[in-house]
Amino acid sequence: MATCSVQEWMDARGDENICPDDSTYHYSEREIIIAESLSNAIREGKTTISLLLQDLKIYIDNGDDLIGISTGARTPKNVFEEENSDKTALKLLLAIFERIQDISEQELHFVIDYFAVRIGNEDNHPAYDAGLGEIILLFKRISEMNAFNPSESSLIIKSIFTLADEKHRFKDLSNAVRQEVYTVVSYFFRQNSHILRKDFGTDKLVAGLLELATFEKKASCLLIVFPLISHISQFWNLGIPQLESLFTSFIRYFPIKIGGLQNESLRLSLEMSNFLTECIVSNNFYASLAFPHFIQILQDHSSMSATTTHEIFIMINTCVKRYSREVVAAWSTNLWNLLKFEVWNSENGDYVEDCLLILKSITTSLEREKFSHDETHGDTFTKFVTEISNQCRDRMVDSPQKFLLSSGRIIHSVASSSKHAFDLVTTTILPSLLALSKEMKLGSERMMLLRVLHYLLRAFVELLDQKDLTSNQAMIETKGALAKFQEGLVEMLSNAVVEFKRIALETSPVGDLENDAICFVPALESLALLFRIPCYLTRVEEGMIVQELIQILVKSPRDGVIHTEGLHALKNISIHRPTVFLDMILPSLLDELSGLIAFDSRKEFSEIQDINSLLNDVADIACHPCLKELDTGFPKGATSPYCHRNFDCFVSHLLQKIDIFFLNKDHICYATATVVALLKGLKIFDGELNSTHVKTATPDPCILPYEFFWSQILKKALTLNQNLGENSVSDSKKQYLDIRQIPNEGDFLEDSFLHLVGNILLIISRSKLNTSDNNIVFKFYNQSLLLEKIETKDFVEGLPMHQDVIEPDFMEIPRVSLVSIYPLVGVQPLADDDKYLTKTKIRLGINQNAGNLAKNTILRLLNLDERINSRTRITILYYLQILIAKFHCSRDELKEGGKLLDFIESLVRDSHHKSPQYIQKLYQIIAYLTTASFACYDLKMMRPVFRILCDGLDPEKHDSKTCTLVAQSFRLILAKSRILSEDNYVQVRSLRKGYLLELTKPLFTQYRLHSKLVTQNIGCQHKGKDSYLIALIGILRSMELPLLLNVISIEELVALTLDGTNVSNDDWAKAEYIKLLRILIREQPENTEKHIDIIIERMIERTHNTLERPSDANVECRILALEVLRLVIEKFGLSLMPFRKVALMIELAVAKDDCHAGVRQAAAQCSLALIYVKV
């Protein structure tokens, strides 16, 4: 095969591409063939690089064809866009070098020397300034070849440095070419630095680099320059002049500011800031330049933005952390003299936080463990900390009002850096503080002093937490400066708590007394910290403090600051010291509860508010994950990790209380209040446990989450029974669930108790502690248990699903569903299940049977002979919704054939001759089914059931009450549901809104028809129109305005809204229409202004409320109407006719005499807006 020639390459000029990411060329197929042919010829010895270069010189030295030489002066982006640009001779050479590896050292030298001279261009040849980008890429490729002699690096670098001459050739190059130049320079500086430094010396290399980067502003180039400067500063032995030059070159870029697209500029700013930071900290010498530079800027930062000031503080902090200990020690005093005044005098909280962070970093740096603590280092550290402590002490003593808090924050930041620093600060500060406390009389000063003590104690506790010490190690750490002042410190804080308690025991601590109490809040926080210091308090002292706090808690008003702070202190103690909670806090609180019950035994249920409040307080204190194990270690027989200790104890004790309350009929209400507290506690604990990052041992996989709680609370509510009812259709003698009877009384538990137990089971069922392999619902609802004959009455917890799943007839007592359905609602699907939860249903025993369960449930709800109260009916409807939305029961075949939808349609067809009560119950069921089908976006169910629901609005088919009830049920479809939610693993689809709006179009049509139709029965026409208005707003209230305007024009929507404000017998719908009108005025003023008269008229009809002509609107509607009027005045006040303003003033005067204060206030605001309308 004949070898291709250079001429063929030149003739093959055509399309070309360059990748913008890596600046490498992508050649056409013809170019690749030519390059491969010439490369093979070089390998076979048919030609050489020298001969090839001689052939190319006629093109690359031709000043008349600079484009033919190269397009290197154009940016790669332009090369990429202009796909028809000419081929260049230099690209052929680059293409060949990309394909060969073995070239003699002499030929490489020939090529390098030729192009080095070309870049130098001492004769100002016009052709030599073209193709620089390709030459740089060629140098980059040559440096990677085996035959490359590192000594050639000097020749390449020397030629590159000539680009930064007085002609500014380098500055005029494209960004991409400059980027390649920096890349090549960086490569040689890193790989062959020993040769370059030998040939040039570091001063010339640094000068050459800085001359290249003198005018550099492009981020992509600086991202190469900054790391290179950081490298040579760190690893080259540079002299002071070179370091000063380098510092001057890069410090001018601080702080980094980049414009452009937000995300991209943010990324570049962050990346460049990191590289620039590395430059600043790359050499300890830079500290002598950086610190004075930053200090000078900060001393006059009045003209700087807050962001820039913050960045300077952050940079100083980084420098302190990264420079050597000796350097930080040399500058520590200067920095302290700058920072202390920022803390003492600055009003900017962010600046203060930054300064405190720097002070802590300085202290930490001066005591780095990697340095030996010899006498010199020890003196530097001690002198610095002591100087700060002395100055802060003097400021606090001389001017406590001004400097107590700010100095306290300083000593906290310093003391929290190390145990040594803490001892120095404490020894200097604490004696003065204790003496000062005896002299202070002002409450504000005493509060600040207590806050400083809190800062000091918090610093010590933070040190203990950082080291994660064992109890013995912590005891050793505690033996220091803090132990010397134990007696005085405890006495001071105890006296403050006694004073706090005195205020709490006042008859009605309000006003000034509440303000006085705030002064002692830091004392409570400090005492809570003392509990976290091992063995600092004796058991007697701990008991006395706990009793004082409990007295504060139970004696103070529940909504006051005293109660809140006492609760907070007990909670913090319990979280960090579960032993104190178990031994002292919980028993004392339960004793207080027993005392309240004994005192309250003759009161009615409505008068046990104190008991409810105390139980709530117990839940708030006990039900947070513990952060420490018991003092005695892991308890024998326990399986849960230490974060459960307080909660498990809380549950156990309150369950025992329930058994005691059951023994007395008069105390059943207390049992209900106790279950409320258990439910609240479970919500707090489970919610926080999911977000608490604590080191916990893996629990025993055989012990399920909350298993004890689940089993025991079920036994409190339900029992087993074999006595079937007279009307039962089943002959089975298996046991079924029944409501637990109250001992010795014969009465059954109330619905409220059962409902609370059901909600406890719901939270446990959906807890994230459950897994596919360790799920409490799957264990108790295992199929094997369901098929066994259970004879013992102690196994209540294994049966809730048994009745509903296998034999629905066994649910003799409908109220059992208040408990039994919630595990099914909250159960967590298996991890690898499909979207229909097939595997989960199999595990639960309801696969292909969920449809039959739904059918039986519907028949039960429609049974007029069975009395089911409202709470139970709603709960069973929730069960029905879960079967549809979560378990997709609409797909199942029923035993009698067909699907659930077919069954519902048959019920509707057969309902024409049924009683109104039956029809109303049927449409209630359909409304809940519709809501569930839209939630899961069940395409086969949504349209049919929604159509059926719409048919229930027809006044010719149903009585007015039924139509109104059906219309009101439309608001359920898009309403937020605690059952149909992601918390219960129901995927609520957002697409349902648009689809529902499409299905709503016939309702708009029916509304228009009833608005225009003239019939003899005017009352029937109005009721039909109202029903459609009520139904429509139930849907429209949840729709965004742009979505609505895709279905209905703005004119029709305004007319509908105005009509809706007149709807009768439904205040909720009326209020929602007024809210919609408010939105229309705010977002569509140009389309509502033309209706201004009718808007004012309708709103006045709502607000006018006198004895002679009372309003048809409730308080909420009247307030909303006044808000609309105010919005009308603000938006269109200038266009109001004078007579309309007068009418408005008259009606507003009437509204200002309304019987409700909220209406009067809204009317006054509206009147004020009318007064300020410019005429």
Key terms for this structure?
single chain; 1175 residues; two-stranded antiparallel ribbon; 60 helices; ARM-type_fold; DNA repair; DNA damage; nucleus; MMS19
Structural account:
By secondary structure, the protein is mainly α. The chain has 60 helices and four strands. α17 packs parallel to α19. Mean pLDDT is about 80; it is low at about 15-25, about 65-85, about 370-375, about 695, about 725-730, about 785-795 and about 800-810.
Strand proportion, as a percent range, falls in under 5%
Structural class: mainly alpha
User: Helical proportion?
Assistant: 55-70%
N-C termini distance: 96 Å
From the alpha-carbon coordinates, what is the Rg to the nearest angstrom? 41 Å
Strand order of the largest sheet: 1-2
* Structure summary, number of beta strands: 4
**3D shape:** globular
